[in-house]
Amino acid sequence: LLGEDATWFMELYNVTEEGNWEEQNILYITQEETELAARHGMTMEILQQKKKNVKSLLLGVRSKRIRPGLDDKILCSWNALMLKGCADAYHVFGEESFKVMALKNARFLADKFMKTDGRLDRNYKNGRSVINAFLDDYALTIEAFISVYQISFEPEWLARANKLMDYVFQYFYDEKTKTFWYTSSLDKALVARSKEMTDNVIPGSNSSIAKGLYTLGLLYYKSDYIELAKKMLENVASNFEQNSRFLTNWTQLLWQVLGPAYEVAIVGPAWEDKLKQFRKYYLPNVIFLGSAGESDLPALANRFEEGETWIYVCQEEMCMRPVETVKEALELIGEVGG
Questions:
Q1: What contacts 56, CB < 8 A, 6 or more positions away?
Q2: pLDDT at 172
Q3: CA 84, CA 99: separation in Å to the nearest integer?
Q4: Mind giving me the DSSP string for 8-55?
Q5: Ranges in the chain, pLDDT < 70
Q6: Which SS3 state, helix, strand or coil, does residue 128 take?
Q7: Alpha helices in 75-178 (DSSP H)
Q8: How far apart (Å, rounded) are the C-alpha atoms in residues 241 and 191?
Q9: Which residue, among 114, 231, 230, has the nearest Cα to 163 in the 3D structure?
Q10: So what's the pLDDT on residue 241?
Q11: Residue 334, Cα to own-chain centre: how many angstroms?
């Protein structure tokens, strides 16, 4: 098909007679196009035009083949994982596009998946869903919304996370074992309801819900949430030595509980600048919260002063004296400010 263009094309995309992956050829680029163009006596403009022509030719031939099946449904849990990744990436790198993506995706999940009573759908396609969400959908969305709150301080996301947790308690909680079922009590009865206690290719739903419980407990001053998270952690603690690679998400919670975690509240009009300064430091044991003004969140109540921005470093409802600078706050949590 390509004639004389085949030489540079196969070189650029690593195509070989024997195949570059399990006797098949997967097109991928591992070299600078400027170097390839120079070797073949082409300018970059000519190379780009040739690439365009060649791709059009190959696509025309491929379009005559029977297309493979396409799974294009949108999953709540997978989007929640990606959402938390975007929020965490923004917190670390400060790349504005990550924040924009996170807020846009959070709004999509809130509008398309979450119902007014706190119920979630599991999937979405062509404007509708046909499956009730499972525990991993709730747990990972709760964690994702908490992360979105921590980069935006928009109270809606924390309130949504809290509402989802209320729903989980109502329809997934097993009082006897102090753990959560994978399926809702509203779903069609199964031969046996299962529970997901270990982590696999994605975090296990009980470990994720326990992390959500611990964080919401700290932010809403819900000691029962904190105690339940600790109890769930104790239930798997005996397995850490033998099965640690299947308990990595539990280990993250263990780290926070043993710390214990710090809540850093930033209250005042300059909160965004203060939070930006905190991003320069690796603080895995810190939960951020804050507002530009008054807030009805228990952890922020009565902390706003007109025209001032204060930083409160707290641990389980006990707060140290407020400070004005990030350096002072870092010193209170044992970090060296710079």
A1: none
A2: 97
A3: 11
A4: HHHHHTT--TT-SBTTB------S-HHHHHHHTT--HHHHHHHHHHHH
A5: 189-191, 335-338
A6: strand
A7: 76-93, 96-112, 135-152, 155-172
A8: 32
A9: 114
A10: 76
A11: 27
Q: Say how far apart CA 123 and CA 130 lie, in whole Å.
A: 7
Using alpha carbons, select from 294, 292, 280, 258 the residue that is nearest to residue 329: 280
State the number of CA atoms in the 13 A half-sphere of 301 facing the CB. Answer: 8
d(CA 246, CA 317): 32
Structure tokens at 50: 């040739």
* Interior angle at CA 178, CA 172 and CA 183, nearest 5: 20
DSSP conformation class of 246: G
**How high is the pLDDT of residue 106?**
98
Q: Is 291 helix (H, G, I), strand (E, B) or coil?
A: strand
pTM of the model: 0.83
Q: Looking at residue 11, what is its pLDDT?
A: 96
**Cα–Cα distance for residue pair 131/137, rounded to 1 Å:** 11
* DSSP three-state, residue 245: helix
